[in-house]
Design goal:
By secondary structure, the protein is an alpha+beta fold. It folds into two domains: 251 residues, 3-Layer(aba) Sandwich (Rossmann fold); 119 residues, Phosphoglycerate mutase-like (Rossmann fold, 3-Layer(aba) Sandwich). Strand 6 and strand 7 form a beta hairpin. The radius of gyration is 21 Å and the shape is globular. Bound molecules: 2-acetamido-2-deoxy-beta-D-glucopyranose (5 copies).
């Protein structure tokens, strides 16, 4: 293990020496937590079949999730050290800021990352001591303006109407045996294809949907988590998901749910305002070399939508904000021009790296995809001017 890390480090040092005219100056990661037990305690309401049991409470990080997070933490710290941003060995606590939302899964993910990245170093993981969502990470509507409500609802409706999930819904009717579920008996929701969908818009709440999209989202999320957790294939969707094609049929439900709830241009700025402001202050201030913020897919989605990240694909993944995935904001200094540049990458583990709990080594690296900002022109290496980006970021919350 130590041998492999050292080898990786040497490799990174060699690679970075080859491109020495650009120096890495600052990194801020906005991360989703790693594998958790399904959130929905009402899965039994959605299907009367026997759901797999989990060793942790609903919504808690699993032991495997922590293991995967330690691995990606170790990979990222080697990359930071290889590029000279952090020293080998323990970094100075003053250079590092690790901050997680209040949920168990976000705290424990941050802790696991730090354990993997800065093993045996005394690095603090901050999170508010509260059972409520930390306001910085809480993607809720705060502004009670009626105009805003109408504008956001119209975005949500447009996005909802653009989804085409009929085939997935039809298959899920059968897979969960909806006709024999309590939701059918009690509420008359016996067919996801025809059940009504309501948009939910309340002040101090997350924008939401209630209907087939949210019901099937809970179901597919539970399938996906069991798959990542490495459960026997017969225990994933009761053996009904056997191929990449099956996942490609069902995972648009997860994307669609996030698209309606967190991808709107106006909506995203409203719900992500505190986090955008927080990220801006860290990037502008420059006092921390490395920041890790651990939140939720809703945070990543709304921040990307607000900034205007161009549509992207993540190879070997079905999700657009995969479990444990990280948006990595990087500030590079170009010695030739004296200018600072921004690079944004998505760093994530592939579906099979997650399911198989694969070690990350130089021959099995996590995936990296460069993201582009709509209004920031990039050079041929995917970097845009830092100051231009800060202006764009500032306009998202001001
Ligand atoms: C760890 O760091 C904290 C604050 O940064 C400090 O209070 C504590 O004494 C340190 N512990 C060790 C063992 O160095
Ligand atoms: C967190 O808050 C609770 C209740 O207010 C308190 O009992 C507990 O000591 C606090 N924990 C820490 C680590 O400050
Ligand atoms: C609330 O939204 C309205 C409509 O977009 C806007 O005019 C107003 O400035 C916003 N209020 C605050 C406090 O942001
Ligand atoms: C749900 O399953 C239980 C036994 O597992 C059975 O007694 C009950 O009748 C089932 N409910 C429906 C609505 O089919
Ligand atoms: C989010 O919205 C943008 C347009 O604003 C669109 O191009 C993109 O496909 C949407 N993302 C998803 C996952 O639907």
């Amino acid at each position: 293990m130590a041998g492999k890390s050292t080898l990786l480090l040497v490799l990174c040092l060699l690679l970075s020496a080859a491109a020495k005219d650009r120096d890495l100056k600052q990194v801020l990661i906005l991360s989703r937590h790693n594998i958790r037990a399904p959130l929905s305690s009402n899965l039994r309401y959605l299907s009367n079949k026997t759901w797999p049991t989990w060793e942790v409470e609903p919504g808690f990080l699993t032991a495997k999730g922590a293991l995967l997070e330690r691995q990606i933490g170790n990979y990222i710290s080697n990359w930071l050290i290889g590029n000279g941003l952090l020293p080998a060995g323990c970094p100075d606590q003053n250079d590092i800021h690790v901050y997680a939302n209040t949920k168990q899964r976000t705290r424990k993910t941050a802790k696991a990352f730090v354990d993997g990245a800065f093993q045996n170093c005394n690095i603090t993981v901050y999170s508010k001591n509260s059972t409520k969502m930390d306001p910085i990470f809480n993607p809720i509507i705060r502004n009670s303006s009626l105009d805003l409500k109408l504008a956001i609802l119209s975005e949500m409706e447009r996005s909802l109407n653009s989804l085409n999930l009929r085939n997935a819904y039809a298959k899920l009717n059968d897979i969960v045996d909806l006709e024999h579920a309590d939701i059918c008996r009690i509420e008359g929701v016996c067919d996801f294809q025809t059940a009504r969908e309501d948009l939910v818009y309340d002040i101090d709440d997350e924008p939401n949907v209630r209907g087939p999209l949210s019901f099937t989202n809970s179901i597919v999320d539970a399938f996906l988590m069991s798959y990542y957790e490495g459960m026997q294939i017969d225990d994933v969707a009761w053996g009904h998901i056997n191929s990449p094609e099956d996942w490609k049929l069902f995972t648009p439900i997860i994307r669609g749910n996030l698209d309606v709830r967190f991808n709107g241009t106006i909506l995203s700025k409203e719900v992500a305002k505190p986090l955008l402001n927080y990220v801006y202050n860290i990037l502008k201030d420059d006092s921390k070399k490395f920041t890790l913020l651990v939140g939720h897919d809703s945070n990543l989605y709304s921040v990307m939508a607000a900034i205007g990240i161009k549509p992207y694909n993540l190879p070997e993944q079905y999700e657009l904000t995969p479990i444990g995935g990280k948006i990595v904001f990087q500030k590079w200094h170009d010695a030739r021009t004296g200018k600072s540049l921004l690079k944004i990458e998505y760093i994530y583990q592939s579906t099979s790296q997650l399911r198989n709990g694969e070690m990350l080594t130089e021959s099995n690296l996590p995936k990296r995809v460069t993201l582009a900002v709509k209004n920031c022109d990039v050079d041929n290496e995917g970097l845009c001017p830092w100051d231009e980006f800060l202006e764009i970021l500032k306009h998202t919350f001001e």
